[in-house]
Amino acid sequence: MNPTGFLLGTHQPGWLARMDVPLFVSDRRLRTYRRLPVALGVWALDSGGFTELQTYGRWMTTPAEYAARVRRYVAQVGHLMWAAPQDWMCEPAVLAGGRIGPLRFAGTGLSVAEHQARTVANLVQLRELAPDLPWIPVVQGWTPTQYTDCVRAYEVAGIDLTAEPLVGVGSVCRRQSTTDAEHILSSLHAAGVHRLHGFGFKTTGLARCAHLLVSADSLAWSYDARHRPPLPGCTRHTNCANCPRAALAWRTRLLASLPTHHQPALFPLGAAA
């Protein structure tokens, strides 16, 4: 993975004004800022859909409200490459409710096909509301066949994912220790969708799948740091789960560990000005 293709996830949107490495920031965090940070480097926006559906079982933010915030980020933060839509994840717990570890899910009560239809419809609506903003499509599903079904659903809606500069792949971050994510990405490549972004990839997932991705984001460094003592010299916190030193050190180790023969650069969708 090329360094420009890896986005470092952060819970701290203020890092946008402090770091020039590519960052991945959630709208759920950034929207609380009265005075927005001015970005030093490029970044991308996560819509926060997983937490939204986990907590409420539906989207509480309207497309118009979300588009208005993204327009503000483009104008005031700057350097936004792309923004994720308000997609609908397809993990079984998101649909049916229940628990995954400590996380409780409200459950949407809907089918995978309905989540896919709503994901496609949201991108169409966002592009109609704000065609000037750098929205990317996201494919959702649970099995490889469902992901390729989602590709066809976009085609029916008039969106050719094989011609899109970047396509996000959702609902894979909790399955990277198996071959599931690799099979899903391979099925998308077989369908002609090659420029893929992997949401929430961890070290093991990137080691297995980097050659199938144009870009990826990860917050795995924070989980890792939460379960370790602070770095030498970090005396102001009990762990480094929100520490920029730890984040950058983890990023350096990750990029050094990935194969170098498949390293396409991230395609910048938005203006970097």
What characteristics describe this protein?
273 residues, alpha/beta, TIM Barrel, two-stranded antiparallel ribbon
Tell me what the structure shows:
By secondary structure, this protein is of the alpha/beta class. The chain has one domain (3-218): Queuine tRNA-ribosyltransferase-like (TIM Barrel, Alpha-Beta Barrel). Helices cover 37% and strands 13% of the residues. The chain has helices spanning 27-30, 49-56, 63-76, 92-96, 112-129, 144-156, 180-190, 203-209, 220-226, 244-257; strands spanning 6-10, 23-26, 43-46, 80-83, 98-100, 103-105, 138-139, 167-169, 196-198, 215-218. The two termini are 24 Å apart. Mean pLDDT is 91; it is low at 261-268.
The CATH topology name reads TIM Barrel
Supply the number of structural domains: 1
Arithmetic mean of pLDDT: 91
> Helix-strand pattern, N to C?
EEHEHHEHEEHEHEHEHEHH
Structural class assignment: alpha/beta
Order the strands across the largest sheet as they lie in space.
4-3-2-1-10-9-8-7
Q: Report the end-to-end length measured between terminal Cα atoms.
A: 24 Å
- Beta-strand content: 5-15%
**What is the approximate shape?**
globular
Précis, in short:
37% of the residues lie in helices and 13% in strands. By secondary structure, it is α/β, with parallel strands linked by helices.
Helices and strands in order:
Layout: E1 6-10, E2 23-26, H1 27-30, E3 43-46, H2 49-56, H3 63-76, E4 80-83, H4 92-96, E5 98-100, E6 103-105, H5 112-129, E7 138-139, H6 144-156, E8 167-169, H7 180-190, E9 196-198, H8 203-209, E10 215-218, H9 220-226, H10 244-257
Parallel strand pairs: 1-2, 1-10, 2-3, 3-4, 7-8, 8-9, 9-10
Antiparallel strand pairs: 5-6
Helix pairs in contact: 5-6, 6-7
